[in-house]
Amino acid sequence: MIREQKNTLRKFIKEQKKKISPKEKQRRSGIIWNKLEQDNTFRNACTLMIYWSMKDEVHTHDFIQKWHPSKQIILPVVNGNHLDLKIYAGPESMKKGQSFGILDLRA
């Protein structure tokens, strides 16, 4: 029952996200990151854990690029049934992963 509800909700959210244009997603992402950057916890953080976004998600690429020189960025990497955490070392450290074709960090 719960699994069915989760699948129904996932489908609904996926359809709702399709209705938002790439330009609008980029604009909304900027609002999120600007607000986060004003937060004292963020300002004081030395390490951030964030995901490398896909097309239909909050855009993270520019934010990661902006902050990786001054903060350690940790990205999750799917490894079979496990989630590994890797340190981001710049765009040259990324490769196309096996899960959903998402860029992830090289081993």
Secondary structure tally, helices: 4
Question: Shape, please?
Answer: globular
Q: What is the total tally of β strands? A: 5
The percent of residues in helical segments reads 40-55%
The string of secondary-structure elements, in order, is HHHEHEEEE
- CATH topology tier name: Rossmann fold
What do these coordinates show?
- It contains four helices and five strands; from the N terminus they run αααβαββββ.
- By secondary structure, it is an alpha+beta fold.
- The protein has a single domain, classed as NagB/RpiA/CoA transferase-like (Rossmann fold, 3-Layer(aba) Sandwich).
- Strands 1-2-3 form a three-stranded mixed β-sheet, with no helix packed on it.
Describe the structure using short key phrases.
107 residues; alpha+beta; Rossmann fold; 3-stranded mixed sheet; two-stranded antiparallel ribbon; 4 helices; 5 strands; 42% helix; 21% strand
Describe the protein's topology.
Blueprint: H1 2-18, H2 22-37, H3 40-44, E1 47-49, H4 61-67, E2 72-79, E3 82-87, E4 94-96, E5 103-105
Parallel strand pairs: 1-2
Antiparallel strand pairs: 2-3, 4-5
Describe, in short, the structure shown.
With 107 residues, the protein is α+β, with helices and mostly antiparallel strands.
